[in-house]
Amino acid sequence: MASGAIDQGRRNVRDKAQERRRKRGRGARLGRADRTPLGTWFWEIDRVLLLLVTVLIGIGLIAVAAASPAAAMRYSNANLTFPPLYYFYRQAIWIAIAVPVMIGVSMLPKPVARRAAMVGAGIFVALLALVPMIGNEVNGAQRWIHLGPVQVQPSEFLKPLFTVTLAWLLSLKAKDGSLPVIWLSFPMIGLVAFLLMKQPDFGQTVIFASIWLLLLTLSGAPIRFLAGLGAAGVGLIISAYLFYSVARTRIDAFLGLAEDGAQIDSYQTDSAHNTLTNGGLIGTGPGAGTMKFRLPEPHTDYIFSVIGEEFGLVACLAIAFIYLAIVVRVFIKLLHEEDDFLLLASAGLVAQFGLQALINMAVNVQIAPSKGMTLPFISYGGSSMVALSIGFGLLLAFTRANPYLNRSPYVVKWNGR
């Protein structure tokens, strides 16, 4: 009987210990002891980046609401009339789809995220090749494909996926210096650039090429090699101006000169600049803008100008600061990154994100030619919103870190006594 009581006591102790371990593993919801996938993700994710992108999405929804009446009026006709907030409601639906996509991608383990991005890059290169054959022409450019009820722009999805694939290829140099990874990257960027120029999409070609050059630089390409590429790039830009009508038209419009030296139409950029400055420092107020009704694409390419008119130049500066904060935040984190792939992938993704924002804002303030490029997470567009969410989800996944992993157990802190 005594031994039976002892065994029962041991079982009770063991059961209590298991219960304590179970509770400790479960922990408070999103508390430091929470070991669920969501809890682990919450404490490993860069919550500052997550907050900044959430703010951008919120600003974007407000901005689309401001631009929606102008866009609805522009695209309405005798046979079809769009409600004033038509684009606002559609954007809200796309955000409801895109945000879970971003969170889901950011929860992927880094190797899984890398493999998924590489597979996705192959799929969207194939779709990009199909655009000239089955794509739809919009505003003189053939960039869209209908996949059932959804219209997709393959180049938007390809940008982050191609960046990750290129980062993986260049990171192999650290493992085996004899691999010709730099030369292997030439046909990759060449194929993408060729397919983009056929659409034509000069702006996206510039972004792809810029990210390629950045990753080559970070991967340790020789200075002379990079200088040669820079000279070749200048030559290609001159050639594009001379022989590529789309580039020549955009640059001529930006400079305000036609081939015979006469002034040409710069209505789009002039309207954007006039709208941006019409609100002054604090803006005319939500819904009170009038110049936005003259903009060609108030809800997409020129939404930054709508923000300037209704919310003022102060709001524009605040948005520019948020983009800058995201880029700086990531590059500061990368100062301590030792994995070559993670460094290249994260740098490429955030540079792509920041460069797209910079180009859009530069066009709106008339310091760059019109490129037909959206403002990340702010401009209207389902394809753009989902693609950006995938890209930012990959960035969040690659910058995830255990805050205690690299902390030395031998650090002694002074307790003040």
Automatic annotation (TrEMBL):
It is an enzyme of class 2 (transferase). GO terms for cellular component: cell division site; plasma membrane. It is a multi-pass membrane protein. GO terms for biological process: cell division; peptidoglycan biosynthetic process; regulation of cell shape. One of its GO terms (molecular function) is lipid-linked peptidoglycan transporter activity. It catalyses: [GlcNAc-(1->4)-Mur2Ac(oyl-L-Ala-gamma-D-Glu-L-Lys-D-Ala-D-Ala)](n)-di-trans,octa-cis-undecaprenyl diphosphate + beta-D-GlcNAc-(1->4)-Mur2Ac(oyl-L-Ala-gamma-D-Glu-L-Lys-D-Ala-D-Ala)-di-trans,octa-cis-undecaprenyl diphosphate = [GlcNAc-(1->4)-Mur2Ac(oyl-L-Ala-gamma-D-Glu-L-Lys-D-Ala-D-Ala)](n+1)-di-trans,octa-cis-undecaprenyl diphosphate + di-trans,octa-cis-undecaprenyl diphosphate + H(+). Pfam families: FTSW_RODA_SPOVE. Residues 1-29 are annotated as: Disordered. Its EC number is 2.4.99.28. The chain crosses the membrane at residues 48-72, 92-109, 116-135, 155-172, 179-196, 202-218, 225-244, 311-332, 341-365, 377-398. Residues 8-18 have a biased composition (Basic and acidic residues). It comes from the Bacteria. It is found in: Membrane. InterPro entries: FtsW/RodA (IPR001182). Keywords: Cell cycle, Cell division, Cell shape, Glycosyltransferase, Membrane, Peptidoglycan synthesis, Transferase, Transmembrane, Transmembrane helix. Residues 19-29 have a biased composition (Basic residues). Belongs to the SEDS family. FtsW subfamily. This is Probable peptidoglycan glycosyltransferase FtsW.
